[in-house]
Amino acid sequence: MDYQEAVKFIKGKIGNTVPEIAIVLGSGLGVLKNDIQNKVVIEYKDIPGFPISTVPGHAGELIIGELSGKTIIAMNGRFHYYEGYDVKQTVFPIRVFSLLGVNNIILTNAAGGINLSYKPGDFMVVNDHLSFFAESVLRGKNEDEFGVRFPDMSEVYDREEIKKMKAIIEKYTGVAREGVYAYMKGPCFETPAEIRALRTLGADSVGMSTVPEAIVARHCGMKVVAISCITNMAAGVTENKLSHEEVNETANRVKGQFKEIIKEYLKE
Ligand code: HPA
To answer: Could you report the per-residue pLDDT of 67-116, keeping only the tens digit for each?
Structure first.
């Protein structure tokens, strides 16, 4: 894939600015945009090689600017495997960020709660993931310029950053969850039997994103922190049927807290 064309295009818009940290904004979590100062907004459709995001609730733009005194590059809208892309295309932006000099990334997502003590509206810091139901994003010829053929995954999510993030979430919401995120390909929500199986396997939350991005970010040596916004209880936990509307409603309800959490995290 031609990452360099995209890098050149973005550099043409931001000059020699090197973003210190990348942020991927999950479903309904695009609220940060208004707080980003001195921003340059680039639509995905204008960037060579970028896929175009197709989900309602997901915008499709890159925002480069300042937040809490840091230079950030934010993805307002991300790419999902279920949209029909090859999984490699979904992580194209992450590798572009790496080539732009980004060493830190915050991944955010909306997720279903599998852990029975969770409630919609909770924030969970991801401390590990399950992804063995999906094709590896690193399948195929290794791209040696980014990382090794067999990358270690014993600490995908940085332990120090998990601690920092949890403390901030607790300060703003009163309760910080920490757990294992199960990656499912979607687009249908899981069945109750699948959720029971995932719980038995040790999952606390479930969603359709983040893991391919986290793997590729680790592959190229970035420090990764990920947060799930628990937007609904997973299938079968309650009598309720699941819907994208509920996901967006909950994300909408807690977006103010989300914004404060990210802003405070960036200050540190
Ligand atoms: N399952 C999968 N993905 C999700 C869910 C869920 O329950 N909620 C938000 N994204």
So the answer is: 999 999 999 989 999 999 999 999 999 999 999 999 999 999 999 999 99
DSSP state string for 115-146? STT--TT-EEEEEEEE-TTS--TT-SS--TTT
Number of structural domains (the chain) is 1
pTM assigned to the model: 0.96
Residue 198 CB less than 6 A away from ligand 1: no
Q: What is the pLDDT of residue 55?
A: 63
Kindly give the number of the ligand 1 atom that is closest to the alpha carbon of 235. Answer: 7
| CATH of residue 102 | 3.40.50.1580
Between CA 198 and CA 29 the distance in angstroms is 25
- Ligand 1 centroid, distance to 39 Cα (angstroms): 31
Range of the domain at 83: 3-267
Please say if 129 is a catalytic residue: no
Q: Which residues pair with 152 in a beta bridge?
A: none
Tokens of 67: 């937040």
